[in-house]
Amino acid sequence: MGRAIMLQGTGSDVGKSLLVAGLCRAAKRRGISVAPFKPQNMSNNAAATTDGGEIGRAQALQAFACGLDPTVDMNPILLKPETETGSQVIVQGQRMTSVAAGDYAKLKPKLLGPVLDSFNRLKAQYDLIIVEGAGSPAEVNLRSNDIANMGFSEAAQVPVLLCGDINRGGVIAQVVGTQAVISRADAGMIKGFFINKFRGDPKLFDEGYEIIKNHTGWPGFGVLPWFADAWKLPAEDAYDIKTPTRKDGLHIVCLHLSRIANFDDLDPLSHEPDVQMTMLRAGEVLPADADIVILPGSKSTRGDLAFLRAQGWDIDLAAHLRRGGHVLGLCGGYQMLGQSIVDPDGIEGPPGTTEGLGFLDITTVMTPQKRVARITAKHAQSGAMFPAYEIHVGRTEGPDCARPFAYVDGKPDGAISQNARVMGTYLHGMFTDDAFRAQWLAQFDVTQNASYTATVETTLDALATHLETHADVDGILGLAL
Fold first, then answer.
1. In what residue span(s) does the CobB/CobQ-like glutamine amidotransferase domain sit (predicted)?
2. Coil, helix or strand at residue 224
3. How far is the C-alpha of 228 from the C-alpha of 151, rounded, in Å?
4. Which of 50, 230, 314, 430 could covalently link to 69 via disulfide, CB atoms 3.0 to 4.6 Å apart?
5. Which structural domains are found in the chain, ordered by start?
6. What rounded mean pLDDT belongs to the chain?
7. Cα(89)–Cα(110) distance, rounded to whole angstroms?
8. pLDDT digit string (tens) for 369-389?
């Protein structure tokens, strides 16, 4: 059986996902057989796995850092928010149920078994497992039946390294306060700490670093400066999507829906030097100079269609098309472009029918069966072959489907309007393929100038070097049991 070390944070968004990816790449560069693991993740940005399930996109990136294809065991519990108070529960890649937030605590005792099963399978295959916690162990109100942080650490007997985020301020209180509120037994599982996201000269924090050591008795493993190239890696949260400021080039605008899902479709486009990418937030008006508007995937298609209308974006989209603009709908965004979305079984809420935007002559019927698959598709217009994945419910039909976006196993996918300016598809991840992205951009007279996969590889290596320069990576990996 392999060894394992767990990275937990003093709060959400302290950089755990990125740091686990960097540690995975650093271990791989040392010739260690390594795999990532996150017991429980909450994200609508999912990835399809080689074994037919779905996991958090962050774990897929971490697997890539290890040189592995993602599997469901790397993230056995995935919570996909459907409303403000409820989530779909994915267990080992497959939908188990949907629950209200208040009822999830009752479900957690049943989930520790699958979590430990997946963890032990990985330990049997690899020399080292690097585990990522969720949120913070300081949320002691959630400690009972916990499977994401100290509850998992205790059950699996995995030592913990605690990460604090100095960029948000109060990092001394973050680390010392965590020790103050958790139990003595849980504190004993924490074997050290390090500080992330420092801006400026790390030596300026020497005194604070010593204060944390003296108050906690935990050894420190380094102060990591801000990693400026983090934006080049796939974002786990849509609010984290960053692009260089560009004022020219093909202007692509993506509507930031309230339940936006699988938005990693945007990352490769944002890397292109001749593409200006804008994430349009709630309350903002669609820019008049937009060339292409993307309606992304959604975990709540009917709900996000109402959200879109509440922003007035339906009116903006109609004006955009009158100006000669283009629209691309991806998955849920594709469904919104049609005449109606029919949900007889209440898959996404109360049963009923929602009027679509009417830009494509199609109708979608929601079905209980979810399709999750990694596939190879053929672009209908250019004939280019490309890898992609599907994660969706619903069946879409209509006259515009006679002009498909692509073919999967010889069967048509998606639809294109008669004037070819509105198109939709169920396929995700297609823009990661450099050749397909080049073909797609060429129709808008844009030359593809970036290699996305090469950029991710180079950035992961730079991240590993960043860790090795500023943290005791050998010491961290040496904590594993």
1. 252-435
2. strand
3. 33
4. 50
5. 3-231+458-479 (3.40.50.300), 250-445 (3.40.50.880)
6. 94
7. 12
8. 899 999 999 999 889 999 999
